[in-house]
Write a structure and sequence with these properties.
The protein has about 210 residues and is an alpha/beta fold. The protein has eight helices and five strands. The chain has a five-stranded parallel sheet, sandwiched between helices. Helix 3 packs across helix 5. The longest helix has 25 residues. The radius of gyration is 16 Å and the shape is globular. About 40% of the residues are buried. The mean pLDDT is about 95.
C-alpha cells in the first residue's frame, strides 16, 4: 500500500511547525507510521544545499541559480526519504515542497510557475502531495512573528514587497488547484487550525 504525502505551505511565520507536530501525532493515532521532513533539507546533502541558499552572505545569488538549488535539494529528498517512505506505506509530512518553489521563484522572483514546475518534474519523480495545507497569513504579520523568533535568513531578509508577492502567490496557487491545496486562515487558534486540517485529511483517508 502506498503511503500518503502531505505538504504544509505558507509564508514565513504562518505557524507550520506547530501544525506539523500536531498532524504527526494525529496520523500516528490513525495507525500511520509518520515521517517528518522539510525543504530545503531533510538529508545530509539537502541540508548542505539549504545552508548555501539561506546564507546571508549569498545575497548576490541569481534567481535561476536559486531555483536550481531548491530543485537539487528536493531531488535528493525525494530520492532518499520521500519515495522510499511512501513505498513502505508511511505518511510523509513535508514542511514545504514543490509549491514553495512555484511561489518564491515562479511568482515572487518572476521566473514563471510553469517553468518552475517543468524544472522540478525530474526532481519529484511524479510524486505530488495527496494534500497540501496552505496556511494563509499577511506578509506584515508573518515577518513580525519571524523577527520575534530568531535572526532572519537570506530569504526572510527580502523586501516587504517580495513577501507580499509570496502571500499573493500562495493564494493564486490555491485557486489554480483547489482540489489539492486547502487554505486555512493562519490567524485562527492552534486548535481551530488543527481541526480544519483533520477535516481535510479525513476526506483523503477514506
Amino acid at each position: 500500500m502506498r503511503g500518503i504525502l502531505i505538504s504544509i505551505e505558507g509564508p514565513d511565520g504562518a505557524g507550520k511547525s506547530t501544525q506539523i507536530a500536531l498532524l504527526k501525532e494525529y496520523l500516528e493515532q490513525k495507525g500511520y507510521e509518520s515521517v517528518l521532513t522539510r525543504e530545503p533539507g531533510g538529508t545530509k546533502i539537502s541540508e548542505k544545499i539549504r545552508n548555501l541558499i539561506l546564507d546571508r552572505e549569498n545575497m548576490e545569488m541569481g534567481r535561476e541559480a536559486e531555483m536550481m538549488l531548491y530543485a537539487a535539494a528536493r531531488a535528493q529528498l525525494v530520492h532518499e526519504v520521500i519515495k522510499p517512505a511512501l513505498e513502505m506505506g508511511k505518511a510523509v509530512i513535508c514542511d514545504r515542497y514543490i509549491d514553495s518553489s512555484a511561489v518564491y521563484q515562479g511568482i515572487a522572483r518572476e521566473i514563471g510557475i510553469e517553468t518552475v514546475y517543468q524544472i522540478n518534474e525530474c526532481a519529484i519523480q511524479g510524486i505530488w502531495p495527496d494534500l497540501t495545507i496552505h496556511l494563509d497569513l499577511d506578509a506584515e504579520e508573518g515577518i513580525k512573528r519571524k523577527k520575534n523568533q530568531a535572526e532572519l535568513d537570506r530569504m526572510e531578509l527580502e523586501t516587504m514587497e517580495f513577501h507580499k508577492n509570496v502571500v499573493q502567490g500562495y493564494r493564486t496557487l490555491a485557486k489554480r488547484d483547489p482540489k489539492r491545496i486547502k487554505t486555512i486562515d493562519a490567524t485562527l487558534s492552534i486548535e481551530e487550525i488543527h481541526d480544519q486540517i483533520k477535516e481535510y485529511l479525513e476526506k483523503i483517508l477514506q
